[in-house]
Each structure stands twice: as C-alpha cells, then as structure tokens.
Design brief:
The protein is mainly beta. The chain contains one helix and eight strands.
C-alpha cells in the first residue's frame, strides 16, 4: 500500500513551525508562571538562606505604596528557609501613554545555579493597565527544600508591553 504525502504550502509550514517554537518558548499565561520543587525528606533541617534582589522596570514604575510615592529599587526577602515561600506586594503604574500588559523576568542570578533552587512568580491576572493606572501585584519567592546554595541574589525586571 502506498502512502499519500501531501505537500505543505510554505505558509502552512511556517505557521506550524512558529506554533511549535512558541509553544515551547512562551508560557501559556504569565500570571501562572511558577516553579515547583520536591517535598522535603523527613530528616531535612532547614538552614536560613541570605538573599537580595534589585528591581528594574521598563515603561512602568514599581512602588511600595498605591499612591506611587515610594519607588522599589530592591527587595529584601528576609532570611528564607528551604521549602518556604515569601510574598511581597508592590504596585505597578503604567507610566506611558498607551495601555500595556506586564511581563516578569529575572536575570543575573548569583550564584548562577541559584535559579535551580529558587523561583519567582507573581499574582497578576494579565489584565491591560491603562496610562497612569496602578495595579497591585504580589511577587512570590519559592525556595526548594533541598538547596545547593547558602545565599543568592538576582535582578527582577518588570516590563510594560503594548
């Protein structure tokens, strides 16, 4: 029995390839980005971990207060223990003149392997933020139960995308 092979148009091939690449590289929803870690073993003794993180933004301002008077330049998560999470509430204001959606990124992990043990997500519904509008965002730091680091730092970047 012969199999029929139908040639794909170049447009269809590009569309399929684009879908495939985007489905791998782009998360379905930035509001649900998270990192999960294994459960602790019964004999695990938590060891406090020192950390720090700077906050940068593009097209938006990140503030400690809803009136947007106290800009966030860094976050002190406090001393965290393996298996813990920490929530920090910040307020993000669209400082441009067109509506934007927000994007969260991290970079400059020190040590480099810290991102294997520590994750950052947020509680943000993905809604559009109008010019000069303010949205409350909760940043969630998650620390694995089993760590290979005793301290870490990283940069947080919040971007307003049209």
């Amino acid at each position: 029995m012969k199999k029929a092979v139908l040639p794909l148009s170049s447009t269809a091939a590009v569309a399929i390839l684009t879908w495939f690449v985007l489905s791998i590289l782009v998360p379905l929803s930035p509001s649900t980005m998270s990192t999960s870690f294994p459960s602790p073993s019964p004999n695990t003794t938590p060891t406090p971990i020192e950390n720090s993180g700077s906050v940068k933004s593009v097209g938006v301002g990140v503030y400690w207060d809803s009136n947007c008077t106290d800009r966030v330049s860094s976050i002190d998560w406090g001393t965290v223990e393996p298996g813990s999470t920490r929530n920090v509430t910040v307020y993000v204001r669209n400082e441009g003149n067109v509506p934007v959606s927000l994007q969260l990124n991290t970079s400059n992990w020190s040590p480099v392997n810290a991102s294997s043990f520590v994750g950052l997500s947020w509680e943000y519904g993905g809604e559009s933020v109008g010019p000069m509008d303010v949205v409350e965002v909760v940043l969630v730091l998650s620390v694995a139960y089993k760590l290979d680091v005793s301290e870490f730092s990283f940069d947080i970047l919040i971007v307003g995308r049209e």
